[in-house]
Amino acid sequence: MPAIYYQECSYTNADNESVLDTLLRHNVAIPYGCRAGACQACTLQADIKLIPEDCQQGLSAEQIRQGYFLACRCIPDQDMQLQKVDLQAQKIPATVSESFLLDEHTLCLRLNCRLRWRAGQYITLWINNIARCYSIASVARLDPFIELHIRVYPNGALSKPLSDTVKVGDRLQLQGPLGRFVYQQDQPEQKLILIGAGTGIAPLIGIARDAIDHQHTANIHLLAAAKTGKNYAEQSLTALQHSVTTFSYQTSDIDNIETILSTEFSNLRGQKIYICGGNEFVKSIRKKCFMLGASPRNIISEEFINFASKAGLDSPDTDL
Ligand code: FES
Q1: Residue 132 Cα to ligand 1 middle (Å)
Q2: What InterPro entries would the database entry show (predicted)?
């Protein structure tokens, strides 16, 4: 079994166990969030030659060169000497410029910060030692702020304090932007179908506005799925539909999306599909779109991370 050396102690790595799980099993205090390779909260450093493949995804070229890796993705195949990373140096300060409810469960948070981002990417937001990922709904060229749509859970480790105590003018910290779920500018004449569930609509609103801003000439249709059939973003989608003739949307109960696709979008050949939502939703809609003729290379998707199940926490913030 490989040994892990960290802060002058050694720990035995169990079979098929990640570095993060080894450290947590030995009660080592180490920051982490998603346990799925998305939030970068568990970043550590080691000799580059000892780092297995697939555990540096999303890190910058410079971080990779310096031997940074994600402890939750790293299953060591040899002994590893680890160094702590100064996470503080990776974080960017952001000031809350607006905070209001979109509906009784969904918070809109607008942040001012010095960051280059694209609509549809996500950031990791920190309060104290808690990290959660949220997708960006705003468009850098149009909006002077990063806009996040945050589902507020009664026991949400981050969403609850964001909703209850964080106010305009407060300073938060974030990492990012991360991810490649963005508008692709290569074919402005290609019809876009955007399909989102819950706050998965947030990055799609950004992608639609980004496409329109980039003079996308073909039609853009957004299918908004919600558990209750009630869409928290109805107001902004209606406004967008009224102002741009090529944009349209419809809202549906989450269980009806596949039926709508079969009846109203029976041939998706040549169209580009963006999907965002929970793991099961994304998987089934991807399959459905493929069955309806969409090419796999034209299906782009982003899955939420269920922090509750991944992190073993009672804090189901899931808004990536
Ligand atoms: S990337 Fe490892 S905990 Fe999120």
Answers
A1: 10
A2: 2Fe-2S_ferredoxin-like_sf, 2Fe-2S_ferredoxin-type, Beta-grasp_dom_sf, Cbr1-like_FAD-bd_dom, FAD-bd_FR_type, FNR_nucleotide-bd, MRET, OxRdtase_FAD/NAD-bd
Candidate from 21, 30, 42 with most ligand 1 atoms within 8 A of CB, to mutate: 42
What's the predicted TM-score (pTM) here?
0.89
Distance from residue 31's CA to the centre of ligand 1 (Å): 9
Q: Where are the domains of the chain?
A: 3-88, 91-180+306-311, 192-303
**C-beta separation of 193 from 218 below 8 A:** no
Domain 91-180+306-311 in CATH: superfamily? Answer: Translation factors (2.40.30.10)
The matching CATH number, chosen from 3.10.20.30, 3.40.720.10, 3.30.428.70, 1.10.260.40, for 3-88 is 3.10.20.30
Tokens (6 digits) for 26: 């030995």
Distance 149 CA to ligand 1 centre (A): 21
Query: Which CATH number describes the domain made up of 192-303?
Result: 3.40.50.80
Decide: residue 160, CB within 10 A, 0-12 exposed, 13-18 middle, 19+ buried: middle
Digitized pLDDT (tens) for each residue of the chain, 320 residues in all: 899 999 999 999 999 999 999 999 999 988 888 888 988 999 999 999 999 988 999 898 999 999 999 999 999 999 999 999 988 888 999 999 999 999 999 999 999 999 999 999 999 999 887 889 999 999 999 999 999 999 999 888 899 999 999 999 999 999 989 999 999 999 999 999 999 999 999 999 999 999 999 999 999 999 999 887 688 999 999 999 999 999 999 999 999 999 999 999 989 999 999 999 999 999 999 999 999 999 999 999 999 876 654 444 434 454 44
Which residues, judged by CB distance below 6 Å to any ligand atom, belong to the binding site of ligand 1? 32-35, 37-42, 70, 72
Task: Report how far residue 305's alpha carbon sits from residue 134's, in angstroms, rounded to the nearest whole number.
Answer: 10
Helix or strand holding residue 26 (H, E): none
